[in-house]
## 1
Amino acid sequence: MFDLAQMDLPIRADLVAAFREVWEQLARPGTRLSGAERVAAARIARAAREGEQVAPSTPLEEAAARLGGRPWTIRPDWIDKLAEQGLAPEVYVEIVGVVSRMTAVDTFHRALGFDLEPLPEPRPGAPRPVETKARRTRGWVPMVGPPTIPTALSAVPAENEAMEALHGAMYLTMAEMQDPDIRKTLHRTQMELVAARTSILNQCFY
Amino acid sequence: MLSWSATTTGRTIDLRAVADPTRDPGLPGGRELLALAEAAVTGEHVLEARERLLAALGPAATVDAAAVAGNFEMMNRIADGTGMPVGKAARRDRAFVIEALDLDRLDHTGT
């Protein structure tokens, strides 16, 4: 899995480890979804992102397809409609986490001309629900505390923690983000140029 | 974040290049970084963009640029998927960027 040492570019070991962890998380039962449901969501999101024809037949599939292929079209009434159809907000948040991390890994591969990593085989087992004090305020989903990027997925703590870990490996840790002059192989301003161009192409205002 | 980093560290950058990559942003490897980001999102001209960035900034920076693009594909989905609001203060602080890049057209959170 993620045999990137065979590639012709120097892929950091911590990055490979982070990608493997994303795939492990994807395959395991989550907080509200089974491993099979998580991998199914990832498969549909990947197909939608790659421009394949996707015909969602369940609210889970509809959420995954939209998040994968056209996230800028998401509106609160659509999320509410999914909830009316039985997709609880915490389940939706878990799908946001699963799809967004898989897309991050896929994008890395795509940008460097690598083949996409095959999705993992789901692991057996039941999800383990976790209760939080998340509630919906100014965002469109419940969160613990005020709506900010670090709390965006806090209704499902495991998803929030996984997002932070991947964020740290692929870009900057939350602590490093305080430094406008940080330099890795790229200076912070160069990183932000890539970030801004990516976001504007994705029609993301935030 | 781009304008904050550039301003705080005394770098001059043409922010309009973010929306119009025919412009030179004025950073080392800037045009090549923009091209790699575009290839990452669209899947088009990938090998050309990769080779250009390799020539401009080298292999380690090319890998890191791909990682940053990947990270923001994640963050964009999280922000759009959860309706992350941009507060009034942040909007005020970024007013010149919002105007320069015509970003109000992308603000879905008020709808």
Note: The first helix of chain A runs from residue 13 to 27.
## 2
Amino acid sequence: MVKEILKQFGVEEDRLWFRFISASEGNYFGQTITEMVEKLKQLGPNPMGKKWQT
Amino acid sequence: MKNYILKVENNNPVKSLAGFMKGLLEQQVVDALFVQQPVDGAAVHTLVKEPEAAAGANPLVPVSLQNAARLVSDLTSRGLKEKVGVVLRSCEVRALVELVKLQQAKLDNLVIIGVDCLGTFEPSTYRQLVKSGQLKPEDWAAKAAGGETAIGGTDVRRSCRICDHVTAEHAQIHIGWVGMNVNSELLIQAGDELAGAVEKIGLSGGGDLSKRSDLISRLVETRAAEKEKMIAEYSDKLNSMDKLMDELSACLKCSNCRQACPICFCRECVFISPTFQHDADKYLKWAERKGCIEMPTDTVLFHLTRANHMGESCVGCGQCESACPSGIPVGMMFQVMSKRIQDLFDYVPGRDIEEPLPLSTYKEVELEPR
């Protein structure tokens, strides 16, 4: 739902991640975060960060 | 629903309707009535107990200072012990259905009296039209029954012009005037359980309603097409964060839109909570990082958050837009965002009281893969 709204305003879908990770899945959690960080680095900083009218 | 005709006397449909309202109280179809009454240059919602006090009622008045679903929530959320008839327009009934699902209103002891609506004027416009003598509240039905709502180039609110609901849904009693020869007759429809009681209030059997149904389907069709067109146009126009920020740059974060919204029911909004009360250091740090920040801050976040909170239930009443002191087309903006959310879940707010709210229903597998 949030993605649908962000899509309207041209924000890349990959900036927002939803994953279900159980408390017992430590490895999967680590792995997901690493993947997410890599993806975000690739996308670069959010252009919104520089805007003064938030 | 059974159809009845209410004969109009002295070319005054409003007076005849007020008589019908009085009858509802006298015959104890309801113990109290919630209905609009015109005052000088506006119209207020009133709760009527005394039959004589229904004399000033005008359920057809083309102005609505707020979406009355909010008031019905106040009236019913703690339980209603007497039978109350609430006169509502389509957008108000649909918002009420959503509030019931959100557990902010109850339908027990409530008799929904729906009324045809072709739109309401902005309150300031309405005041002007009345004060200048261009619009007499009692003449509105005769003027607009053919589907024409503009008065001397001034039309009803934008949200109303693209609203494809003329009759009110889920009503136990319904008042019809669109497409009727209102100076001689009005249509009263009643559900089977109330028909017996309503019959006693001087109604005669239903006449030929083909002219009315033709006009309503034509109006609904044109307005639905116009709505689709306007949403598509605005959606194309507002297609980037930059454009959204520009559109919202005049936002004062006054929360009028939230206050006017029938769906936004939180007693304490997160935006007035300490989460958004920052120390001076924080503002200065932001200003340092960006060179300059707009005050008040978080306006874009405010509207995006609101869209996420009430988007699935937005009925498009446009009261947010009417309440905006900066004239930002927030109603249009919310319709664009809500449409995406509602389409995603194939959910139509106000359609069915039994239809569960998508976000409060757990489904093991949902929205995947996308």
Note: The CA atoms of residues 9 and 25 of chain A lie 34 Å apart.
